[in-house]
Amino acid sequence: MAEIGDSNVELQAHQQTWHGFTAMMKWGTLGVAIIAAFVVFLIASK
Question: Which of 1, 20, 30, 36 has its CA 20 to 30 Å from the CA of residue 13?
Answer without folding.
Answer: 30
